[in-house]
Amino acid sequence: MLPPGQQSRVGGLQTSLSLVSSDPRLSPEEPRTNSDNLRESPTESASSRETWPTADAIAAKKMENRKTEMDCPDQSVIRRVSSADKISLQDIARERVDIICEKMHHLPDEFLEELKNGLRVILEGGNGSQHREEFFILQKLVQSRSDLTAKTLIRAHRVQLEILVAINTGIQGFLHPSISLSQTSLIEIFVYKRCRNIACQNQLPAEDCTCETCTNGNGFCNLCMCVICSKFDFEVNTCRWIGCDLCSHWTHTDCAIREQLICMGPSAKNGAGPSEMVFRCQACNRTSELLGWVKDVFQHCAPSWDGEALMRELDFVSRIFHGSKDPRGRKLYWKCDDLKEKLKSGKVESKAACRAILMVFQELELDSPKILENTESGRLIAPQEACNRIAEVVHEAIRKMEIVADEKMRMFKKARLAFDACERELADKAREAGKLKMDRQKKKLQIEELERIVRLKNAEADMFQLKANEAKREAEQLQRIALAKSDKSEEEYTSNYLKQKLSEAEAEKQYLYEKIKLQETSRVSQSSSGGDPSSMLMYSKIHDLLYSVPPKEDGQSNECHPFRTNP
After folding, report:
1. Is residue 551 over pLDDT 70?
2. 286 is in which domain, residue-wise?
C-alpha cells in the first residue's frame, strides 16, 4: 500500500486548515482548539497549521473598513445598525434559525463580515484561555441543540450557516471569503454526512465503509483522517501517515506510537514467521508489516525529498523501529541514526544519503529469504555456520566499534585543535591585557599630571582673579575721587566765571553810567542852548535799558558771550 498520496489528498485545496475534532468521545472539559492540538504531538501540530487570515490580518481589514467609512461618511451613516437590531455569536448559537435568519436579512454585509471576523479571531486562539473558553461555550450551545437538522438549516441565512458549521467543526476555513461551498454541502457537513475536510468533501461514510469508526456518526472520513485523533492534514508522500493494508484506514505515526499500536508481532504475511515490527490498526484490529511500508515510501518518494525532508523522514523511521528486536529492523534503525548524524554534521549530502538508505532496503530484501529459510528449518544451524555467523556479528560489532573509535578520535583531534587554538588565543589575550594594563598606568600618570597642572592653573586663575578684583576696587575708588574732584573743580570754575562776569557787568554798568552821566551833562548844556529832539530820544532809550534789566539777567546774557570784553 502506497503512502497517503491518494487522489483525495493530492487534488483540491493545497493549504492547511485549522482543525478541532468533533468527536464526542473527547473530554468535554477542554475546548478543542488549535492551540491545544499544537502542544499534543508533532502529528497533531501538523494538522493544525494555519494559513487562514490571522488576527493581525483581521485587524488590518477592520482598520481598512474604518478608513473607508471615514472617507464615505454618508454611507457609514446609512449603514449604521441600531443596538436593537444587532446580533452576536451567542445569539446565533442560541436562538432559533428562522429568527436569526430574518434579522440577518436586514443587516448590512459589513456587519455580517464583522461577525465572521470575530469568530475567526476566537478560532485563532490568540487570547489564550479566554478565546478557548468562548469557543467551548459556543460549541456547547450549538451541539446541545436538537432543532439544528437538515430541514431547519435549509432555511438558514448563508452567513448564519457558515458560522454554525465553523462553530460545530472548529474549522475557520468555512469563514474564509475565498472558499465558497454550496448550502447543501454546508448542511451535510454540519450533520456529519459529508467530510469536513474542504479538500476531500467525500460523502460519509467514505467508500460505504461499515466499520465502527466510520459509522459512529462523528464525521470521520477514512480517506483523509487519522483513526485515533480524527484530524487531517495535507502531508503526502511521507512516513508521517501509516496505512492499514487491509481496511485502508490511515493513522498518524505519532498517534500510533503514543497509543502503542506499533510493536513487535508475528509476520503479517506469514503468521508462523519470525517476529517483526507491525502496526495494529485500531479500526479493524489487524496488523500490517512496517518494513515493506517504509521501503515503498522511500522507493517512490525519497528521490523528490530535499535534505530537511529526508532528515524528517529518517527520524520517523528511527522512531518506528526504535523498539525493534529483529535483525532487519535493528539494522534499519542503526542506519537511519547514522545517516541522521552524518546529515547533521554535513559529512554526507542528501542525495548520497538517499542512495545509501535505498541500498539498505535492497540489502534487507536480500537478507529476508535467508531469515525465512532458517526459520522454516526449525532454526537448526550447523556449528560451523553458527560460528561463522557469530564471527560475522563480532566482526560487524568490531567494525562499528572501530568506526566509532575513529569518529571519537577525529572528534578528540578536533577538540584538541580547538583547545590549542583557545590556548593561543588566551595567551594573545593575556599579552593584550598586559599591554592594556601598561597603557592604563601611563594614562593614569598622564591624567594625574594633567590634574596637577589643572590645580596649578586654577590656583593661578584664583590669584589673578583676586588681583583683578583688587584692581577693580582701586579703579572704582579712583573713579569716585576723580568724579569728586571734577565736580569740585567745575563748581570752582563756575563760581570764578560768574564772579568774573559779575565784575565785568559792574564795570560795564559803571561805564554806561558814566557815559549817561556825561550825556546828561551835555544834554543840559545843549538844552540851554536848544538841543536836538533825536538826541533826547536816544538818551531816554539808553536810560530805560540800563535801569530796566536786573544785574543777574545781565550776567546771564553775558554768559552767552564768554569772549566778550569791555570796549
Report:
1. no
2. 236-367
